[in-house]
């Protein structure tokens, strides 16, 4: 008597399974974008308006300390607006999925508890990079130019991609904390519009009121834009502050801490919601 041996399909290893789970969430998020392209418009609209208003209409009225082209100075600030503009849509998407019971359906599936959040951020990163490409093309049209090597220019855009991804995790944290799309919609515009004006994104910190200048100088947006302008060979606002002289290190530490806190708290809240 012989015994038939049935070969069972091999279960994917944990890293491969996690990648498949994340890819499924990414595909779902991108399909939603295809059906609602207004989300992509929201990511690019504020940066484009800033370039038109500040970089074209008011360019003769704004002087950079130390001289130089204001369009070239402005572009770094406009570019980080792409990252800030992604906070709201990501937060709304996460809050909507939470309120509609998607987490309850995922609870019964043998998938990683963080794949849902990672998938959201990767999909929105792709959207953000596409929006950045549109904003960059428009920036070239209004006069933005680089004066650095190709490697430095690529490094600048790599820093910008990291910044966008960190901001997306801030959006995840906001969506997990509020769980209400209407509440998120009321706060998101403040992040996109107000925060850049409290930094050197659009104006040099020394041109701001004396009490606000130190706040703007230590704003992480100021250090990131300073790094971008330096890498791209664009004009930078002359400053003798310690934070400006060590903008690279300050940006690395601030973004690293923000990323770690946002990821840890978001995943923790997600798991506690399932409990």
UniProtKB/TrEMBL annotation:
Keywords: Antibiotic resistance, Cell membrane, Membrane, Transmembrane, Transmembrane helix, Transport. Residues 38-273 form the ABC transmembrane type-2 domain. This is Transport permease protein. Its main location: membrane. GO terms for molecular function: ABC-type transporter activity. It is found in: Cell membrane; Membrane. One of its GO terms (cellular component) is ATP-binding cassette (ABC) transporter complex. GO terms for biological process: response to antibiotic. PANTHER family: NODULATION PROTEIN J (PTHR43229:SF2). InterPro entries: ABC2_TM (IPR013525), ABC2_TM_bact-type (IPR047817), ABC_2_transport (IPR000412), Nod_factor_ABC_transporter (IPR051784). Belongs to the ABC-2 integral membrane protein family. The chain crosses the membrane at residues 38-58, 73-95, 116-144, 150-175, 187-205, 247-267. It holds the Pfam family ABC2_membrane. Signal peptide: none annotated. It is a multi-pass membrane protein.
């Amino acid at each position: 008597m012989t015994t038939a041996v049935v070969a069972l399909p091999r279960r994917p290893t944990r890293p491969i399974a996690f990648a498949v789970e994340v890819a499924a969430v990414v595909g779902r998020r991108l399909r939603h974008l295809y059906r609602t392209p207004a989300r992509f418009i929201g990511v690019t609209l504020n940066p484009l308006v800033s370039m038109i208003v500040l970089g074209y209409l008011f360019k003769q009225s704004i002087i950079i300390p130390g001289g130089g082209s204001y369009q070239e100075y402005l572009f770094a600030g406009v570019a980080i607006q792409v990252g800030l503009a992604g906070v709201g849509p990501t937060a709304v998407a996460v809050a909507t999925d939470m309120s509609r019971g998607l987490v309850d359906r995922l609870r019964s599936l043998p998938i990683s508890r963080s794949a849902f959040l990672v998938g959201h951020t990767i999909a929105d990163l792709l959207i953000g990079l596409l929006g950045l490409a549109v904003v960059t093309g428009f920036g070239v049209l209004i006069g933005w130019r680089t004066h650095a090597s190709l490697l430095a220019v690529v490094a600048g855009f790599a820093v910008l991609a990291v910044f966008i991804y960190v901001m997306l995790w801030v959006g995840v944290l906001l969506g997990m904390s509020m769980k209400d799309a209407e509440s998120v919609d009321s706060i998101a515009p403040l992040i996109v519009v107000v925060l850049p004006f409290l930094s050197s994104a659009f104006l040099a910190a020394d041109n701001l009121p004396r009490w606000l200048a130190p706040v703007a100088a230590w704003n992480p947006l100021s250090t990131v834009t300073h790094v971008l302008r330096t890498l791209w060979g664009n004009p930078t606002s002359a400053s003798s502050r310690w934070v400006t002289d060590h903008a690279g290190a300050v940006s690395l530490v601030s973004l690293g801490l923000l990323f770690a806190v946002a990821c840890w708290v978001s995943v923790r809240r997600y798991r506690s919601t399932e409990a």
